[in-house]
UniProtKB/TrEMBL annotation:
GO terms for biological process: transmembrane transport. It comes from Paraburkholderia fungorum. PANTHER family: PHOSPHONATES-BINDING PERIPLASMIC PROTEIN. This is Phosphate/phosphite/phosphonate ABC transporter substrate-binding protein. It comes from the Bacteria. One of its GO terms (cellular component) is ATP-binding cassette (ABC) transporter complex. Keywords: Signal. CDD domains: PBP2_PnhD_1.
Length: 296
């Protein structure tokens, strides 16, 4: 939390304490498990946690012990599928991107935001083959093949799309060909293999791959980094009971308090989870408005 202004740190500490007090008060009045649902369904996508079965199993065990109920991770191949399930109350919480969050903020509740390198922020990275040393901006890729990650990804679709619009270019016609991989890691693979001339992904994902699986980023180079945006949040369905929401939030915020939680955070390459503010995603809202000036 050291990278945040003091006022933000103080606000998060007060909010965390408030969440803890709410859980304690509820537990005293009703018994620890009285109002918990029989099962919590936690949505994730293939964007990052696609080959992390062992991590998810450990995280599931921890959450079940803390909440006193079953927890199941529900994985799908796109943000769109998970978002629709959340909006239809088919899952309880989900780790999504800031893009679907800002477009459906009135139908979901902000549960927690990861803190990465001291801030609840991340960047989009433009990737090109390592041998391509001259490219420094997406505007130099006219007529090339481009790999997007997911149509509801801020870093892997909204940022490159609006970067072209900002320069007066039509993203529908700028590239010779463009396609979606539906996973940031697959964007890396597409660029490294020559299937795409370039692509754009979540910088946190790229940095984590470079740290944990360095061979996965061999053959690609980061040509450009975007400004900072609100980190992909964990959100809850709007109808999730207040007490269940508070206990889940407390479990996420408390991961730094024991060895097992810190090990999970280390594997996720995160500092911790914090209570986020809706204003954190205002810059993504600006991108959505800019994108809406041109048909998809």
């Amino acid at each position: 939390m050291s990278g945040l202004p003091f006022s933000n740190r103080r606000r998060q500490l007060v909010c965390a304490a408030g969440a803890g007090l709410a859980v304690a008060a509820w537990g005293t009045a009703h018994g620890n498990d009285a109002a918990m649902p029989r099962k919590i369904l936690f949505g994730t996508t293939a964007v990052f946690l696609d080959n992390q079965a062992r991590l998810l199993m450990k995280w599931r065990s921890r959450l079940e012990a803390q909440l006193g109920t079953e927890v199941h991770f529900v994985q799908r191949g796109s943000y769109g599928e998970i978002t629709e399930m959340l909006l239809a109350d088919q899952i309880d919480v989900a780790w999504i991107c800031g893009y679907p969050y800002v477009t459906h903020a009135d139908r979901m509740k902000l549960l927690a935001v990861p803190l990465y390198e001291g801030k609840p922020l991340y960047r989009s990275y433009l990737l090109v083959p390592s041998a391509q040393t001259s490219v420094t901006t997406i505007t130099e890729l006219s007529g090339r093949v481009f790999a997007y990650s997911d149509p509801q990804s801020n870093s892997g679709y909204l940022v490159p799309r609006t970067e072209l619009i900002r320069h007066g270019l039509d993203p529908r016609r700028f590239f010779g060909k463009a396609f979606f991989t539906f996973a940031h890691r697959k964007v890396v693979e597409a660029v490294a293999s020559g299937l795409a001339s370039a692509g754009e992904i979540d910088g946190y994902v790229f940095d984590t791959l470079a740290k944990q699986v360095p061979g996965a980023v061999t053959g690609v180079r980061v040509a450009w980094k975007s400004p900072l945006y609100g980190f992909p949040p964990i959100v809850a369905r709007r109808s999730l009971p207040v007490d269940t929401f508070a206990r889940l939030q407390s479990a996420l915020l408390g991961m730094t308090e024991d060895v097992e939680g810190r090990l999970l955070l280390d594997r996720l390459n995160l500092d911790r989870f914090v209570i986020g503010e809706d204003a954190l995603f205002d810059d993504i809202r600006k991108l959505v408005k800019l994108s809406d000036t041109m048909p998809a």
